[in-house]
Specification:
Layout lengths: L1 H5 L2 H20 L2 H20 L2 H11 L1 H17 L5 H26 L7 H18 L4 H20 L8 H20 L9 E2 L5 E2 L2 E2 L5 E2 L2 E2 L4 H22 L2 H11 L1 H6 L4 H27 L1 E2 L6 H14 L4 H17 L7 H15 L12 H5 L5 H13 L1
Antiparallel strand pairs: 1-6, 2-3, 4-5
Helix pairs in contact: 2-3, 2-5, 3-15, 5-10, 6-10, 6-13, 6-14, 6-15, 7-8, 7-13, 8-13, 11-13, 14-15, 14-16
C-alpha cells in the first residue's frame, strides 16, 4: 500500500506542495532565517541524493508529468499572488527568475559542452542595450527591442564562437574573459549608448496598454507593482526550461555531451564539432540576451556596471552551485544564489568574497553541484517499454524454432 502511494500522482502533488512551501518560506523570511533554511534544504538534498532519492523523485515526476505540470502551474500562479504588499520580496523573486533564464543559456556552454564562458553578462548586456536603444534612441516598442536583442545576442555568440573553435580549456576561458572586459569598456566610451552613465528611463513593457509594472487591485487585494512582470518572467522561464530540456533529450544534446567528453572522438563518430559548438554559443547567447532584455524591463535602466565581469562571475557560480548540465539544478542554483546575494545586500562589499568562497567550496566538496546531471531516461519520456522490439523479435525467433 505504501509503495503504491509513493508511486502515484498524489505523491507528486505533495512533493510539489512541499517544494513550493520551502520556496515561499525562504523568500519571505528574514535574511538570517532565510539563509538557515537554505542551508538546511541544501544539506537535505545532498543527503537524499546520496541515497538515490532525488533520482526517484525525478523519475516520479517524469512518470506523472501531466500532474507535475498542472501542479507546477498552479503553484507558479499562486506564489506571485501571495506577494501583496512586499515590494522588496517581489523584486527578489523577479531577479531570481531572470537569472534562471540566463543560467539556462550559460549551461549550454559550461554544462553540456564543457566550454567555460566568462562573458554571459556581455550577452545580457546586448539584450538590455538593444531594448534601451530601441526605446530611447529610436522610439520603438520595448518588445521590438527584446526581439532584436535576442537575435543580436545570438549573432554575437556566433561571431565570438568562430575564433574560439580552435581553443579550449584555459585558452577559451581567457578569450571569453577578454571579450567580457572589452564589452564593458566599449559601452563606457560610446556616447550613443550613454557612456559610463548608461541610459535611464528605459520604457517598460506593457500589453495592450496595460503596464506590467503597476499596482493592480484584484478582488479587493492590492498587489505589489512587480507582480504582473513577475508572471511574464515566469512564463519565459518555463518556456526556456522546456526548450533546454527538449534539447537535452535530443540528438543535439547527446552530441554536445560527446564533445564535452572528447571532441576528437566526437569527430570520429561523425559529429560536426564546429557546428555544435557554434550552436551552444548561439542558443546560450539568445537565452542570456532574453534575460538581459527582461532585466532592463525590471530596472528601467541600462548601464555598463550592470553587465560587468562581476555579473558574469555570479552567473557562473549559479551554474556550478546548482549542477551543470541539469536544467532544474541550474534554476535551483540561480534561485539560491540570487536569494543569498539579495539577502546580504547590507554586506555588498563582501559579495565577491562570497562568490569565490562558494566556487572553492563547491568544487572541493560537491563538484557536480546541488542537483547533478542525470542519466537520460528516454523510456520515461516517451512512455515506451525498454527493449520492446528486441523482446518481440526474440519471441518470434522462438516460435519459428
Amino acid at each position: 500500500m505504501k509503495a503504491k502511494f509513493f508511486d502515484s500522482p498524489i505523491a507528486v502533488i505533495l512533493i510539489s506542495i512541499v517544494i513550493g512551501a520551502l520556496v515561499f518560506s525562504v523568500v519571505m523570511a528574514e535574511y538570517v532565517l532565510s539563509l538557515a533554511i537554505l542551508a538546511l534544504v541544501i544539506v537535505a538534498i545532498l543527503i537524499l541524493d546520496r541515497y538515490k532519492v532525488v533520482n526517484q523523485i525525478f523519475d516520479l515526476f517524469i512518470k506523472y508529468k501531466k500532474t507535475a505540470i498542472i501542479t507546477g502551474i498552479i503553484l507558479a500562479l499562486a506564489f506571485p499572488a501571495s506577494l501583496t504588499t512586499n515590494i522588496y520580496i517581489a523584486h527578489i523573486a523577479t531577479l531570481a527568475v531572470i537569472y534562471g533564464i540566463a543560467c539556462l543559456g550559460l549551461n549550454f556552454q559550461m554544462g553540456s559542452t564543457d566550454m567555460t564562458n566568462f562573458a554571459p553578462a556581455a550577452f545580457m548586456g546586448i539584450g538590455a542595450y538593444s531594448v534601451g536603444i530601441c526605446t530611447i534612441r529610436l522610439g520603438l516598442s520595448p518588445w521590438v527591442g527584446m526581439v532584436l536583442g535576442v537575435f543580436a545576442a545570438g549573432l554575437f555568440g556566433f561571431i565570438i564562437g568562430l575564433p574560439t573553435l580552435k581553443t579550449k580549456g584555459y585558452y577559451l576561458s581567457l578569450v571569453t574573459m577578454a571579450i567580457q572586459l572589452a564589452f564593458t569598456e566599449l559601452v563606457r566610451i560610446i556616447p550613443y549608448v550613454g557612456g559610463s552613465d548608461g541610459m535611464p528611463n528605459v520604457t517598460k513593457y506593457s500589453i495592450f496598454g496595460f503596464s506590467l509594472y503597476q499596482r493592480y487591485t484584484v478582488g479587493g487585494i492590492r498587489f505589489a507593482p512587480q507582480i504582473p512582470y513577475l508572471y511574464l518572467c515566469i512564463l519565459f522561464l518555463v518556456l526556456c526550461t522546456y526548450i533546454a530540456m527538449r534539447i537535452y533529450y535530443s540528438r543535439t544534446g547527446l552530441s554536445l555531451n560527446t564533445i564535452a567528453q572528447d571532441d576528437i572522438a566526437a569527430n570520429c563518430l561523425g559529429i560536426n564539432v564546429s557546428r555544435q559548438k557554434l550552436f551552444s554559443f548561439v542558443i546560450g547567447g539568445m537565452f542570456c540576451g532574453l534575460a538581459g532584455a527582461l532585466f532592463v524591463g525590471l530596472e528601467g535602466y541600462v548601464g555598463p556596471d550592470s553587465y560587468d565581469f562581476s555579473k558574469s562571475l555570479m552567473l557562473i557560480c549559479m551554474v556550478i552551485l546548482g549542477g551543470m548540465d541539469n536544467s532544474i539544478g541550474v534554476v535551483v542554483g540561480a534561485f539560491v544564489l540570487a536569494i543569498v546575494s539579495e539577502k546580504l545586500r547590507d554586506f555588498a562589499d563582501f559579495q565577491q568574497l562570497v562568490y569565490g568562497a562558494i566556487l572553492v567550496i563547491m568544487l572541493i566538496v560537491r563538484p557536480n553541484g546541488i542537483i547533478p546531471k542525470r542519466v537520460r531516461n528516454y523510456c520515461g519520456i516517451t512512455r515506451r517499454q525498454p527493449l520492446a522490439k528486441e523482446l518481440i523479435a526474440a519471441q518470434a525467433r522462438e516460435n519459428e524454432l
